[in-house]
Amino acid sequence: MIMHIDKNELETLMYKHKEVIGTRGKLSLWGEMLSIVANAVGVLTTGIPDLVKLAMGVLIVILGYDCIRQLYAAYTHPYTVDRLTEDIVKLDRTERRSSIIAIRDPQAPSRYLVYKDTGWGCDLFPNVATREPAENDVQHIRESLQKNYGLHAHDIKSLTFMGRQENEKPSPEHKGELRYYTYSIYNAQLEHVPAEWQHDTFTIDDRECAWKTLDEMNADEHTHQINADVLSFVKYYQ
Q1: C-alpha span between 76 and 66 (Å, rounded)
Q2: 192: left (phi over 0), alpha (psi -120 to 50) or beta
Q3: pTM value?
Q4: Terminal CA-to-CA distance of the chain, rounded, Å?
């Protein structure tokens, strides 16, 4: 999975946790603490000159303090590699990873199935949240088409991955802030067309659907503004 992360946000995260990034494991720290105590006992019980003993004692105190500090951090503010990874993933500016299905009309191959999306306020191709790996994504698409559009396995002649499209768009959920959208685009050929689909416009479970050409979709100013990248991609591969 490719992520888009703002460099300044990543630096802010790193500086925020710089004191605990790389915190060692508790077992390792306790082993070091025992070693420091053993060395301290050895220094105190040997007959070395007092000046040397003092110097070694100061060094042991410094090492002991640092070890105690790390132990405190390990127990109170553990920051593991997994936690760091999770925080970095949260910085991902990719707003949506969607799998888009361009379903051709078998009776008029230049037309595609679209539905009226109330969130974006325009006609869109059927789509689902992308799943990884690819085989899971294909299975998820087939299940979604059956659940939301009544298309069963025997209705779909082929489902072919065409490619991936990335684009930067203003996000409605983030007050127009630019976010990345990653689309996995598939082409679907139908073996059988449900009877209710054999009209220019029809309804599936309260979802307004229609057969439209790419030119018709591009002719709508709002649809073109929102979806021109996907429409161009599909047109290139049709």
Answers
A1: 15
A2: beta
A3: 0.63
A4: 27
User: In residues, how long is the chain?
Assistant: 238
Largest CA distance in the chain: 101
CA 178 to centroid of chain Cα atoms: 16
Write out the DSSP string of 17-70.
Answer: TTTTTTPPPHHHHHHHHHHHHHHHHHHHHS---HHHHHHHHHHHHHHHHHHHHH
Would you say 79 and 17 are in contact if contact means Cβ atoms under 8 Å apart? Answer: yes
On the CB side of 107, CA atoms within 13 Å amount to: 11
Beta bridge partners of 175: none
What digits encode the pLDDT tens for the residues 158-216? 999 999 988 877 776 667 777 778 899 999 999 988 888 989 999 998 899 999 999 99
* Per-residue pLDDT, 156: 93
